Amino acid sequence: LFAAVEMAPRDPILGLNEQFNADTNPAKVNLGVGVYTDENGKLPLLACVKAAEEQLLAAARTRGYLPIDGFAAYDKAVQGLVFGADSAILAAGRVATVQALGGTGGLKVGADFLKRVNPNATVLISDPSWENHRALFTNAGFTVGTYPYYDADKKGVNFDAMLACLNAAEAGTIIVLHACCHNPTGYDITSAQWEQVIAAVKARGLVAFLDMAYQGFGDGIAEDGAVIGQFVAAGLDFFVSTSFSKSFSLYGERVGALSVVCESKEETARVLSQLKIVIRTNYSNPPTHGAQVVATVLNTPALRAQWEEELAGMRNRIKAMRGALVEKLKAAGVTADIDFITTQRGMFSYSGLTKPQMERLRGEFGVYGVDSGRICVAALNEKNLGYVADAIAKVM
Ligand code: LMR
């Protein structure tokens, strides 16, 4: 039966974890996967999460099935966070939100739903994009192309080329956009540029699918989510996938969501009914724990305030590490312009290092980053920074 099954390549991001775990180099540093570790190199358990878990444990909950679309208090809390608690479209019942298995799950439920609605549409992702975007939409049955994004010379976004591509896209094309903290480049477009993207989406009849996996890691929760308000104000129907993996440090709980903005309450009910079929036929209904933790935090004012503070702590530490990396690289003798590292946003730096350089970093120094040159600056700390900077300087 399996004689003709070919060996699949390792996942370009999660596959690095397997390689890292098998590496016996005692100095090894994992800057591959997008995971935040604290100043001691440890994955944090947020105090707000711990407090919520204590409350949930004390209540000794039973474990019935959740509804197909998830825990209602969670879906509502997600909506409040993404669209603003006093949003008019929420009051009008125009958003269908379902709990999903992480941000990836939200993307997949949305992709499968779109395949039913518009099976012949093309999907455009940014060039470059998160490695899994292409694979996920391809596996959902779509042809996936790219729109220009990164400008290597300018160390930023080639916005004119991006916009020209969107303005030439066929009606119905699905455009996957990074709401904030673009993965992998760390370069976001400005709110004025978002307005131009929105105008193109509207004029061409495109379908916007916003991936918001890093809300709060750029400039703040409201600041990073502002683009959602711009899409709403334009009167568009669109998709948003949400992830709490990073912002709650709940990676393994797979806690995310998909929200679909619709034209009316009646349309929302129809869309929700279809999303539920996608979920039911994939994994039936989502798990309880992560969503209850997130809902408890977001719906308890004191815990929410604590979460915002802890998230700001992570954001600020990452920014400090960006500055420190630049200093250490300069001290290690790097003369090339590397100040771009501090203007990038979110967990990643698109370093400009080539695949052979990344392979050398892994092979000779045990410093793991993605072949594209992406390194996770959220995993840097005072202890590994000098070693990492020296290693990078040597391969440059
Ligand atoms: C990443 O880009 O490293 C994260 O989003 C983790 C993942 O699932 O790839």
Can you name the CATH architecture of the largest domain?
3-Layer(aba) Sandwich
Number of domains: 2
| CATH domain class of the largest domain | Alpha Beta
What portion of residues belong to β-strands?
5-15%
Please, what is the average pLDDT? 97
Main β-sheet, in a few words? 7 strands, mixed
Q: Distance between the terminal alpha carbons, to the nearest Å? A: 48 Å
Major β-sheet strand ordering: 2-10-9-8-7-3-4
H-E string: HEHHHEHEHEEEHEHEHEEHHHHEHEEH
Uncertain regions spanning at least 5 consecutive residues: none
Query: Number of DSSP strands?
Result: 13
By CATH, the topology of the largest domain is Aspartate Aminotransferase, domain 2
Structural class: alpha/beta
Shape: globular
The total count of helices amounts to: 15
What is the name of the CATH superfamily of the largest domain? Answer: Type I PLP-dependent aspartate aminotransferase-like (Major domain)
What is the gyration radius calculated from CA atoms?
A: 21 Å
What helical percentage do the residues reach?
40-55%
List cofactors, ions and other ligands. (2S)-2-hydroxybutanedioic acid
